[in-house]
Design goal:
Blueprint: E1 8-13, E2 18-26, H1 31-43, E3 47-58, H2 60-75, E4 79-83, H3 87-95, E5 103-105
Parallel strand pairs: 2-3, 3-4, 4-5
Antiparallel strand pairs: 1-2
Helix pairs in contact: 1-2
Length: 114
């Protein structure tokens, strides 16, 4: 069995939104890193897009972190959108009915492939 994929997070300030790209696995061990990087961004009150297109796994602690970030964005009068969910991650969010809470889009806004 190989080592679990590390979590990599990048923040891209764009005119319309801040895009936070999450790559790897979001689980009990990596969730604190997501919160450390993304919480100040959502606390800014800006429109934030979480690009989850390269997130391969999300467990219950990862889902909890996403809910915390959503609540923080609402409290700061900003927005949080989940983008580009892979089928496994999307199925987890749907199975837990969190698709009713989150704004979810098929692709990261402003990345039309040009």
């Amino acid at each position: 069995m190989g080592e679990p994929a590390p979590l990599a997070i990048t923040v891209d300030e764009r005119a319309a939104a801040v895009v936070v790209s999450v790559v790897g696995q979001l689980d009990f061990g990596t969730t604190p890193e997501l919160l450390r990087v993304a919480a100040p961004v959502v606390d800014s009150g800006r429109a934030v897009v979480l690009d989850l297109g390269r997130l391969s796994f999300c467990d219950s602690s990862g889902l909890s972190a996403l809910v915390r970030l959503h609540k923080a964005a609402v409290a700061a009068e900003g927005t949080l959108t989940l983008a580009a969910l892979r089928p496994q991650v999307g199925a987890t969010i749907t199975a837990t009915a969190l698709d009713r809470l989150f704004s979810i889009v098929d692709e990261v806004p402003g990345t039309d492939g040009r």
